[in-house]
Amino acid sequence: MSFDLVFFGGTGDLTWRKLMPALFQAFRHGKLPEGGRILAVARDDRSDEAYREFIHDRFAEVESSKRPSDEEFARFAALLHYRRMDLSHPEDYAGLKEWLDTRGADTVVLYLATSPYLFPVICEQLGAAGLNGPQVRVVLEKPLGHDLASAREINRVVRSVFSERQAFRIDHYLGKPSVQNLMALRFANALFEPLWRRESIANIQITLAESIGVGTRGDFYDKTGALRDMVQNHALQLLTMIAMEPPSTNDADAIRDEKLKVLKSLKPFTPESVARDVLRGQYKAGSVGGQAVPGYLDEVKVPPGSSCETFVALRTEVQNWRWAGVPFYLRTGKRLAARDAQIVINFREVPHPIFPTASLPNKLVIKLQPEDGLELHLMAAKGSGPSDQLSPVQLDLDFDRAFPSERVGAYERLLLDAIAGRLNLFVRSDEQEQAWRWVEPILDAWSRDATGLRTYAAGSWGPAAASALVARDGFAWAEEQ
Q1: Is the same domain home to 109 and 139?
Q2: Is residue 414 part of a domain?
Q3: Secondary structure letter of residue 318 according to DSSP
Q4: Are residues 467 and 320 in the same domain?
Q5: Is 86 annotated as a binding residue?
């Protein structure tokens, strides 16, 4: 199958930091279909060879195990091309179409690795140039808008040019192997499904923690914040996969139908429940990994006195028969104690303890990063001492050890799926809009009241009030248990 893959924003951070290394790994693994061309478009005026040198220099910044040898890069670079484009000029799109039509590839993937405000103008120009035929797919990066109204407008323009089956809204968390294993855990094994409900589960915690700060992206991040950057997309997508009903098939729409039902079942927020169940914070100076780091307000390009949140913790419920009364806790933040993304399923205590020694509730930990695996925490007899003396033990499955061959990364998997036309790991427009609809009362409440922003020391697990949020129900975050 021949393909052309076009990156709008071809010299931007996302393209050279994430997308090109992912494509190279697909090429190295022999997964990239033969007969492909990769075209980067941007406003700079440069030749194909100059662009190849640019990418070669950027590859020096990726982790050493993923860097190409000179011979590997030479073969990969033969696929790379560059074209200067002004995204507001119709004649430049006509030139792009002419370049694509010289070969007439079976599949054309147009990846919009640009700021979201450019999505409508790019899609309108693509439609006007006739670059929306049945062989064309458009990939849209997050964040897709900054609120429900802007998301709807982007989707309106996209749908006026492309069919829903041509639109690939990317959420790179869905490409992580551990998230795909979450689907396998639930729907390919009979072990957990009878327990996956309110009668057996006490609470569910989703943590997406980063130890890094905003770096040089302070101006972008300050307009976004943790709620838009992580909760509206990544955290809610993980919640839907945990809480969804079994789909009838593995078809993309069957899966996305069930995810949408979860989003529609989330307990809606009111101004009162926002004040009670949602916490926001901003990091101040502290120490991460033994290194002193500045507070958010001292970061590059952050406006003085900014009230942008770098931490969010919230409590919600899925209001249906399976999950009624089970609290779901979501938290995310920058400059936290560790880089740690995980889902913790805390099971209920045994109904009648018969052992005199303390018994801890069972829990299942789904590790997303930096490790990728599963932990099942149980109680067991020690084998020495009194026969009724129990101790906690854990069964630990490390997917990297279980599958020793090099595993496919998130962007690598999603790029290959976009080329192949597989929509399972991409977000449908109604899902994405419903997620915005759910978080909008939080945004509205914060816009009306600038108070309530707590600070936390860099290198901690966030404001102390985040612990109180969970403790109110008699529970604790995983690191506090």
Answers
A1: yes
A2: no
A3: B
A4: yes
A5: yes
